[in-house]
Amino acid sequence: MRDTCAMMLIGLLLLSGCQGRSQASEPVLEAGRRLWDENRCWFCHGNDLRGTYPIADQIAQRSDEELRAWIHNARALKPGTIMPTYDFLSREELDQLVSYLRHLARSGS
Ligand code: HEC
Prior knowledge:
Elements: H1 2-23, H2 26-38, H3 41-45, H4 56-61, H5 64-72, H6 74-77, H7 91-108
Helix pairs in contact: 2-7, 5-7
The structure holds heme C.
Heme C binds at residues 39-41, 43-45, 53, 55, 58, 62, 66-67, 70-71, 78, 81-84, 86, 97, 101.
């Protein structure tokens, strides 16, 4: 009986340890994922960033600043691009999207 209790305690400690670690950046990634879905970025880029217009390789080459500026107003940087303008997104939302993009780029490679 004592052993069973000890095992359960260790199990609980392990479980809470795992949760503690993954929670750190999750709210940001979760918010980024929602923005990615709602704004249909996946429609052109695919959830693996290798869709119709692949951008997996670009992500690593750009700074956060460059990615924010591009998403905010791609047409200012490349007139005539078919990528829509997302100038209604706040600075915080742009940061969330950039974090999520980097997450997708990492998990896809
Ligand atoms: C209608 C299609 C379309 C949608 C929707 C779209 N994009 Fe794009 N995006 C493009 C195209 C096309 C390019 C490549 C640039 C070009 O050739 O005009 C691009 C390029 C990019 C790049 C690379 C920029 C660089 O520096 O090279 C990023 C990052 C990006 N898109 C992010 C996003 C995000 C985030 C969203 C959603 C908020 C989004 N895109 C929605 C079409 C789209």
